[in-house]
Amino acid sequence: MTPVSEKRGRLARISFGALILLLYVFLLAPLAAIMLASFTGGELMRVPPQGLSLRWFVAFFQRQDLVDALLMSLRVALVTSVVTSIVGMMAALCSQALSRRLAVVFQISMTLPLLVPELLTSIGLLFFLYQIGLAKTFIGLQIGHILIAFPYAYVSIVAALRQIDPAMEEASGSLGATALDTFRRILLPLAAPGIVMGAVFAFITSFDLYTISLLLKPVGGNTLPLALFDFLTYEFRPTAAAAATLSILLSALGVALIQKIVGLQRAF
Amino acid sequence: MLMTRRTLLQSSMAAAAAASFGMPTFAQGKPMVVNMFGGRWENDWRNSVLPNFAKQINRKVDLDIGLGMGWVSNFRAAGPENPPFSVVMLNERYTAMLRDDGYFETLTPELVPNLADVIAPARLKDDTAVTGMLAPLVLGYRTDLVSEKPRGWADLWHERFRGQLGLYAITNSAALMMAMWAGKHFGSGYDDIDTAVKKFQELKPFPQLGYSAQLTPLLTQGQIAVAPIDVGEISTMQSQGVPVDYVIPEEGMFVFDHSFSLLKHGADKQDGAKYIDFVLSPETQAWMAKNWLIAPTNKTVELPPEVQKWPLSQDQVSKATRFDWTAANKISAALSDQWARNI
Hints:
Helix content of chain B: 40-55%
Mean pLDDT of chain B: 87
Number of strands of chain A: 0
Low-confidence stretches of chain A: none
Order of helices and strands of chain B: HEHEHEHEEEHHEHEHEEHHHH
Strand content of chain B: 15-25%
CATH class of the largest domain in chain B: Alpha Beta
Low-confidence stretches of chain B: 1-28
Largest sheet of chain A: none
Largest sheet of chain B: 6 strands, antiparallel
Distance between the termini of chain A: 36 Å
CATH architecture of chain A: Orthogonal Bundle
Number of domains of chain A: 1
CATH architecture of the largest domain in chain B: 3-Layer(aba) Sandwich
Radius of gyration of chain B: 23 Å
Oligomer: heterodimer
Strand content of chain A: under 5%
Radius of gyration of chain A: 23 Å
Shape of chain A: globular
Number of helices of chain A: 13
Mean pLDDT of chain A: 88
Structural class of chain B: alpha+beta
CATH topology of chain A: MetI-like fold
CATH superfamily of chain A: MetI-like
Number of helices of chain B: 12
CATH superfamily of the largest domain in chain B: Periplasmic binding protein-like II
Number of strands of chain B: 10
Largest interface: A-B, 30 and 34 residues
């Protein structure tokens, strides 16, 4: 390699590195800003913060409406992640069993909620829920969240199942294992990273949903994104930044959980 | 009995099914549902006001939290024959939508005795709604950042405030009121949206905020010096030591009308009417004036001394500029479109 091309190569690497760095800054700056703002000692949500304090976290936990909303969001997201994982696994297995052409149609239909705008899905679901008497109930809200979050779990599990060598299933069957045994001892452990990742994605997606919650939320209940929007609408204080910081930490905990249980490399 | 995973799963599913299908069993004891905005409105209403009403009707009362468009979507999805609640509070902009769809019962003093004491401007469209919460919209300004205070809405176009204004986004009913006022003041009428948009174009650039509470930080930090804003925010800023004051615009202040209506086919109509009566009662109206700087619409209410410096009196409220929201809703789509393209 000539000194000129070596110099060009180094320049290209530095430029690429700078670009990546800029990209990270662009992605992470809003998160860093809101987290910084949550530790302000002043009255206003601003960066840099005016002094350091945990007072807005205390204020958050003293607000019954926000704490109730946090608990409801956690509850809905937890049920969503469990249900989407189970149904996603069933759908992924079904997709494996179909012919290639049918599987394509099946996959598109399973991921439709990702293709249709959330608002339209919400309105359609709202009319449907009123027809069956489940509008403005917790079950109605839960159905909406499961519907929107389902494709994330499904896609993740399908990807995990595809990585499993079909010969392992055949070997299990030829050694006398029942279909259930093969599922429990072969498929489930090997697909576990995809299932966990899908569950975590479904949880985070559900935890963040706004539009569908706005239309489907039950009487007397609010999810955290809705409560935060209400809060910012009428008060606009750093308590909202504290709530955002808690949400970010919760998401980070989810990623740490994947790392701990299955390892990020296996999951992706 | 030993609880295995299988029995646990079975009993959980049975419990879930029972909970789902058993709901009608509790229908008789169902709580009454009323609605309110979120944030501090929710907290105050839930903790300080609703318990008195629940005691009055001897029944549990649930609070549905939300915003106008969310409630309107729900009522429209449910249809007029099957409304989700029997009584509803909405900004008059949204009330007009449901009124035009035929959802509401006519309110009478027999149903709502306190209606007889309500000021005339608060009785809306043949008593299909009554304003129970009336929030004045005034011109707020930073006393240290303007050389001469504004006198009226038209002063927003004065050279001395150029670059110092904060306004509402067109999604907020305050922006709609401002635009309709500008259409009438500078053009041919409330529906002259071409003139209105052209006039607001002259004020560019200015920050557009969704709600009053989002204008507050900008005023507090001095990023803007003049803004239309509701008096509650002025009071909050003053209590924090921000050098801010307000004027009642000489052309007349605007008001956010939060009106209450009874649903024609509501299941709880009787308690719904009692709720509207409770909201209009002198006690509740005085409480709202004192705690939220909401102008009482019940003329028997005497304003507490501590709020008399605010424009909440019957006389001031009666002089406020009011808008026909049925007509406003007809132009709002075109106005939003033009606003988005040009501003």
